[in-house]
Amino acid sequence: MGKGGENEVSVEAATELNKSLPVKNEASPKKPMQGFNAKLAFAIAASALGSSFQHGYNTGVLNNPQPIIEGWVHGVMENRTGSAPEQTSVTMVFSLMVSVFCIGGMIGGAVTGFVADRFGRKGGLLLNNVLVLLAVVSECISKSVGSYELIILGRFFIGINSGLNAGLAPMYLAEIAPMNLRGAVGTVYQLVITISILVAQILGLESLLGSENLWPTLLAMTIVPAIFQVVTLPLCPESPKYLLVTKGQDMEAQRALSWLRGTLAVNEEMDGMRAEAEALKLVPKVTVREMITNSALRIPLIIALMVMLAQQLSGINAVMFFSSKIFQMAGLQPPSSTYATLGMGAINVLMTLVSMVLVEKAGRKTLLLIGFGGMTVDTFLLFIGLLYASTSTIASVACVIFVLVYVIMFAIGPGSIPWFLVGEIFNQAARPTATSMAVCINWTANFLVGLAFLPLQEWLGPYVFVVFVILQVLFLIFIYKKVPETKNKSLEEISAMFRQQSYQ
Prior knowledge:
The structure is a single chain. By secondary structure, this protein is mainly alpha-helical. It has helices spanning about 5-20, 40-50, 50-60, 65-80, 85-110, 110-120, 120-125, 130-145, 150-175, 180-205, 215-220, 225-230, 240-245, 250-260, 265-280, 290-295, 295-315, 315-330, 335-360, 365-390, 395-410, 415-425, 430-460, 465-480, 490-500. The two termini are about 25 Å apart. It is found in: Cell membrane.
């Protein structure tokens, strides 16, 4: 069969799938916290703490001890060659330590779909901890054997782990959460990232683990959440949707769902999943080619990829990078500027908690628009402030305020929503492939921003933020015009929106 015929079959099958799914009864809306219980909370903690903690902790763990680690690298190079190395060589090695984490994340994101289907969501998360062990062993022995290459290798392993976690954990959380709690539960992934970045910043202080003798211990602390997950996650069930729809295990799925809901009265939810499983038998396995050629899948794929790009290209990493410098310009000298940066991390955690509450009330699209709208205005004001910060105390203090407002706007929606939105806008057949593509794009954008920002900043100075303002405006327009509201909507309603768009 030709390409066009294959596409017709898939659209037809997708339409049959959407028709067969039960429509939500609007007459009896669910209460906000209905379905939440201690067992569900335990499963959320077991899956999120052991996964997204790796993502956040290893993103920020090298920041504070950078001078000490660079000094050690300098010493290793000098011992090997017998002569003092150029500072550019030392900087290049440290930059590779930082960037290889993103390269690993890109690889981990790309294989998420395979791992999710082959080993399951829970199984994939547990197996992924092998990479944490390899990373910790490599990083721990690096100093004693005098090999900075082992740190690079360890960062690569933990990068793959984090890339896989970024796909598997939100997928598991989306599939175990009741429909009315999908947004709040999905936000947990970003919440733990913000907490773990803050923990890394605190532990990385020279007075704690960021010292010349203890920095290998600082890197090794990433084993703690892995141990927590290996101990707790086996006590939780696999995703009921995975068990039923992918594996065809009806009784196991019902037992898993009963455990998660804390009740045996799960017939209505099981019926909905059974209808989805039956309908998905009509749909061929969703491949990358199918995602691109099938308009009913291509539209949500474009949305998923764009919100991931928007998150990374919004300038969050640039603002974080500039924060210490901005605080110093405002008259805060180390260690005061360091503690101000910790305060910024605490605000990020607090506002992500606020987002968790708001996402089920205000909705996904509303928070994305508020977040990106606020960031656009704030980034422009930050750019203006930076132009005068060196000569005006008022401008430098204003820049500090703009940085804090920026973090608040990012945490309200753009920081958390992209991670779980992918799971909401795709059905079970397409979700693993879509998640792989979205997570890979996110890590790729993260890597490119990290690679390009410093050269751009040196070339453009404060004008680098104009680039981010332009990107934020474009993303804001896209979100307003294309991103649907998925709050409290069933798969049928979300699919119907995309089906309507694909025929327009």
